Amino acid sequence: MVDTEVIEQITQLTAPKATALGGGTYNRVLRVTAAEGEFVVKISPGEQPGLTYERDLMRTEALFCTLASKIAPVPEVEHTDFSRRHVDADVLVTTLLPGTPLAGRSDVDRTSIRRQLAQATRTLHTVEGEAFGYPQLGLHDTWSQAFIGMVDAVRADAERFNVTLPNIPVEQHKTLFDEIRKPVLVHFDLWDGNVLADHALTGLIDGERAFWGDPVAEFVSPALFTDIDDEFLTAYGTELTDADRVRLAAYQAYLYAIMLTEQVPRNNTDERLTRLITQALVAAVGVLG
């Protein structure tokens, strides 16, 4: 437990009062009220076992927020502390956005909000980088190098945690990945729990899993365990080509491989969820041939 005095030292806020915010699946998340206003304080889990891509996630989220908050409803960075002087963890302080997560809600116009989400996603993808991959792990000159390396990493993680994955034949589609020449900022975790709304879209949160890559990868999380709908694509302003759909299946397989593997370090024993992930993974791999 991080006490109020330590929070004050870390965040540089005056007389902070913290309460836990639910919904965080990796970091500890606090809502902090201080003399300066209301903020979100995120504290990383330190050195607990995790997947390869989860190293230094907080630093990626700080970068994501810094870049994306200029053009999209994303929290602004107020303060970071990666020194680990006060606690053995990275700390990020951001503005608190209005609204509550879309997950499980029936009191909103979901069609309208998903249309707004698609449009916000298109705007997010106007942010371009200089190379491909996870910012915190080192970038690559081509998307095929970056993405195949990402898949290799989760394969190694699965072996480390004794998780059996099906063969994910991304290497045979290298030329399709090489068609992506422009790295854009991809959130990659825009499921309903990370989408805030009141009567309209108010925020995109938890960007720690962001990377520089193919914008088509963004269409996985808003449609977990199914395929992205035509209405979303229309609002985004695109139609998927055959090549896009193959790459999309590869990104689905990658995410479901992550979700299956992370069950072990997170001590998740939900057998129904494991079956659902496994079925989705097998279906995505089937598209890849």
TrEMBL record:
It comes from Lentzea guizhouensis. Signal peptide: none annotated. This is Aminoglycoside phosphotransferase domain-containing protein. SUPFAM superfamilies: Protein kinase-like (PK-like) (SSF56112). Residues 18-249 form the Aminoglycoside phosphotransferase domain.
